[in-house]
Amino acid sequence: MSLSTGTRGETVPTVPPVSPAADTADTHAADGVDVGALLERGRTLSTPVLRAAVDRLASPMDTVAAYHFGWIDAQGRPSDADGGKAVRPALALLSAEAAGAAPEVGVPGAVAVELVHNFSLLHDDLMDGDEQRRHRDTVWKVHGPAQAILVGDALFALANEVLLEIGTVEAGRATRRLTTASRRLIDGQAQDISYEHRERVTVEECLEMEGNKTGALLACAVSIGAVLGGADDRTADTLEAYGYHLGLAFQAVDDLLGIWGDPESTGKQTWSDLRQRKKSLPVVAALADGGEAGRRLGELLAADAKSNDFDSFSEEEFALRAALIEEAGGREWTSQEARRQHAVAVEALDDVDLPARVRAQLVALADFVVVRRR
Questions:
Q1: Least buried of 29, 50, 254, 274, by fewest C-beta within 10 Å?
Q2: Angle at the Cα of 221 (from 107 to 43), degrees rounded to 5?
Q3: What is the pLDDT of residue 34?
Q4: Model confidence over 216-236: pLDDT tens digits?
């Protein structure tokens, strides 16, 4: 599948399949691996424990959290709304199997990582002013900014509680990895916000920010189950390397979707990252190009930063910026970077002794991350 050049958000930028077995469906079978089944297993095993953790929260935080996770609607009625791709829980369960343990051993790690991930989403939505997530109003829009902050904080605390109450040495090691990943995630968010107010950001700075914001928690997800299963630090560190580079590939695709993604698939506005003045990989790569399109883009973005009526820009104005990013090579460079990071992630698995089935499943999940619509 090639990258198309739509300029009004109709098309979805996906990266060409990394193997002949991969197709462009949201969940696909690659080399005999049913990725959809892996994701569903992650949901099935982790959701009851996740719900039990959320039930510990005081009212109304428990209800607000339930809305965020898609378990109820804004009126409190049961709902089966989209709860996300569940990549992190799937990785945590596979991580336990990588250490020779049962997948259930990884469930507390899966839940803890998912709680931290959703803590970050609640705060990110508020900081970015996003009004939609997964085709529904965001928590701050429905329940107010204060509840979004409080519930995010509560989920972060719950994540550590879920792990530490296991009471084992392995649980302590897992918590240390989770807290380190959480701190790096917050570092990445702080970098992301600061870059919005800078005229220029280097590609290296952008990759560092995205490695913190996305790579660190995915790296934790794919090592935390192994740690709970008794794996040594070398094994966990190698799995983290896979997860870190997978996170960079994941974020590169997210950056493409953030500009050219179809709102019907992403649940966000057209040109969503451009509306928020994000210095994402396509933008940064385009500005670094040095050609006429990159120069024009830089002038427009510098003027945007000083504009008082940026929020009233027309679709055509955002389309122009997207077209300049593409003309300057930002879109193609980012798709190539997603493929490169995917390759580095898969190569990292060669440095650890894994059951063949688990390795095939980790490779299939990496393929899914790079070839997706949302």
A1: 29
A2: 45
A3: 94
A4: 999 999 999 999 999 999 999
3-class DSSP state for residue 30?
A: strand
The answer to whether the CB of 367 falls within 8 A of the CB of 18 is yes
Residue 4 has pLDDT above 70, yes or no: no
For residue 241, the SS3 value is helix
Q: How far is CA 164 from CA 109, 111, 179, 189, 335, in A?
A: 10, 12, 12, 26, 40
DSSP state of 197: T
- Tell me how far CA of residue 243 lies from CA of 16, 90, 138, 348, in angstroms: 21, 12, 28, 9
- Closest by CA position to 108, among listed 280, 255, 229, 247: 229
- Measured CA to CA in angstroms, residue 16 lies from 1, 34, 49, 199 at distances of 5, 19, 36, 31
Spatial separation of the C-alpha atoms in residues 245 and 340, rounded to whole Å: 9
pLDDT for the residue 134: 84
The fold of 29-370 is: Farnesyl Diphosphate Synthase (1.10.600)
Contact status, residue 315 vs residue 8, Cβ threshold 8 Å? yes
